[in-house]
Amino acid sequence: MGIYLPIAEMSVNMVVLLAMGGAVGFLSGMFGVGGGFLITPLLIFYNIPPAIAVATGANQVIASSFSGALAHFKRGSLDMKLGGVLLAGGVVGSSIGIYVFAYLRRLGQLDLIVSLLYVAFLGSVGGLMLVESVRAIRRARGGQVASLRRPGQHNWIHRLPLKMRFRASKIFVSIIPVLGLGAIIGFLASIMGVGGGFIMVPALIYLLKVPTNVVIGTSLFQIIFVAAFTTVVHSTANQTVDVVLAFLLMVGGVAGAQYGARVGQRLRGEQLRALLAVLVLAVALRLAFDLFVRPASIYSLATGAS
Amino acid sequence: MLLPRALLLLFVTALAGKAHAQEPVSEGIQIGLSTDRVSITADFSGANLTIFGALENVDPLISRQGRYDVVVVLEGPPRTVVVRKKTRVLGMWINTQSVIFRDVPASYSVAMTRQPQDITAPANYRRLALRPENVHLQPLDPEENVSTLKEFRNALRARKEARGLYVEYAGGVQFLSRNLFRATLRLAPNVPVGTHRARAFLFRNGVFVEETSALLTIRKAGLEQRIFEYAHQRSFLYGLAAVLLAIVTGWLGRLIFRKE
Fold first, then answer.
1. What pLDDT is recorded for position B4?
2. I need a surface site. Which of A143, A187, B94, B204 has the fewest CB within 10 A?
3. CB-side exposure of A208: number of CA atoms within 13 Å?
4. Residues A24-33: what's their mean pLDDT?
5. Does ipTM exceed 0.85?
6. Which helix (H) or strand (E) holds A201?
């Protein structure tokens, strides 16, 4: 079934997009990730212009994060204060990101930078996850109990000035790394169309030593607002948010996430992480492949720039 | 699909030459559009557009010999286009060179009575800026290097042809009677919206006689058009609406699936 995307100005297959949203939603439910980092590359593979794929990806992230965050809001398993400071950094990072995005687009280098960022981030995160999970699987086979290392000693981050107390997280840290982390996530959100949970969660756990029970809720809280901010600014500055496209992805995604979560509960944590790592690496390889292989045409057209 | 009202019909025009009956009158060509709007709906996947037209003061002898030829062009709205070229840098294919052209027809669809070389000489097509290879492509920077310009012009045409936006259809114009003709033009699925210009050229024995034109607006139907306009004119509110839609969808999804 064909459907016309009003902003992308092209006809696409509705079933393909619903299935794409559903598959990513399934994976995000299974692995507990937002899925933005899979949606944008998949849209690019499906010939949606990267500028529209990124902005629409940010819009789609809101729906999946909001759906996931509701449970955490109810249980109160989030740190509003920490989320707020992260968000302040996020708004600054996202604003810079939008400016860079528009500049790269004018230069004609946006597609390249988006691909490069994806290859770098997905490649390194996927690689690290694969190594870690394979080790965990080996340990489990060897009969040892896998334990999440959470050392109590202070690192360089705790020596920075401007300290602030976050009660829900039971931490007392400088706001500099918190703002910085928020800004990096915001920047990536506006250039890559991701929520950034795949960087935020490990950073909160390992760098800021936030207790695991409030990490996911806080991360989702900040992602919703940064993605919302990014969507509005992309829409205002670049007119690249396609609501028809976003809606199809959201519907598929929200439905898929529920089934994914059920399957995820039955799989072992380290196996799940190994699977996700393989998937992330596969997307990174495919993007890298497109960069290095001679394109079908070395010429491309862009309309509207003056 | 095109809406039925999009079918373009003929306005039969009165013969203009009657007042000058003594002088040898030259032939004329007319096309008329019954509607000046074509709407693209959500399931649009390309379509054929039919234009009817008439010749005036037809010479019966030449008509019998089939020496009248008609070329009909549907030209899309002029746009500024950047053509970029990728070269290999550190093993990666990167955009390194670009040329900006202004007032490039977004689409260019041609229908003609016969094979182009049987209608008239290439020089005549060039003079009339007719057919995709003769579309006038003006660079924004007049100082642009000549060989670069040639390369990028060819690339622009080739990319447009590959996307089905610059097309030619020999046999796309058929005579229904001695002076009535019908032109069938192909609209690509990604046909640009905006004001298109339909132009008809009449040739007699390979000599250009007359040209006529009519305007036609191609727009998105109903909801698609409103979304597009809203996104461009009220882009801030559009962004807020997109955020709201996402929140409602996420919330509803939670409600629906929790009840199961």
1. 41
2. A143
3. 34
4. 78
5. no
6. helix A197-202
Q: Residue A242's pLDDT band (boundaries 50, 70, 90)? A: very high
The single residue listed with the structure tokens 């981050």 is A157
Average pLDDT over chain B reads 82
Distance CA A177, CA A163 (A): 10
Radius of gyration of chain A (CA): 19
- Asked if A301 lies within 8 A of B238 by C-beta distance, the reply is no
Torsion-angle region of B212 (φ positive above 0: left; ψ -120 to 50: alpha; else: beta): beta
Q: Token pair 């009449």 is at which residue?
A: B202
Q: Is the pLDDT of residue B248 over 70?
A: yes
The predicted pLDDT at position A149 comes to 47
* Percent of chain A whose pLDDT exceeds 70: 92
CA dist B96 → A252, A300, B33, B120 (Å): 38, 11, 45, 40
Residue type, B31: I
Collect all residues with Cβ–Cβ distance below 8 Å to B172 and sequence separation of at least 6: B72, B110, B111, B112, B183, B184, B185, B186
Residues 6 or more apart whose CB falls under 8 angstroms from that of B65 comprise: none
Tens digits of residue pLDDT in B179-203: 899 998 888 877 888 889 999 999 9
Do A226 and A185 form a contact (C-beta atoms < 8 A)?
Answer: yes
Evaluated on CA atoms B233, B237, B240, B242, the torsion sign reads negative
Q: Nearest-5° angle of CA B19, CA B24, CA B26?
A: 90
**Test mutation, A28, A61, A66, A294, chain B, max B CBs within 10 A:** A66
Residues of A (111-170) whose Cβ lies below 8 Å from B: 111-112
Decide if B193 touches A, using CB distance below 8 A.
Answer: yes
Domains of chain B: 4-220 (2.60.40.2550), 222-260 (no CATH)
CA A89 to chain CA mean position, Å: 17
DSSP 8-state symbol, B186? E
Q: Does B6 have pLDDT greater than 50?
A: no
Q: Are B101 and B138 in contact (CB under 8 A)?
A: yes
Query: Hey, which of A8-17, A252-261, B36-45, B197-206 has the most confident mean pLDDT?
Result: B197-206
Separation in Å, CA of B192 to nearest CA in chain A: 8
Q: For A42-80, how does the pLDDT look when each residue is reduced to its tens digit (9 = 90+)?
A: 898 888 888 899 889 889 888 888 887 887 777 777 788
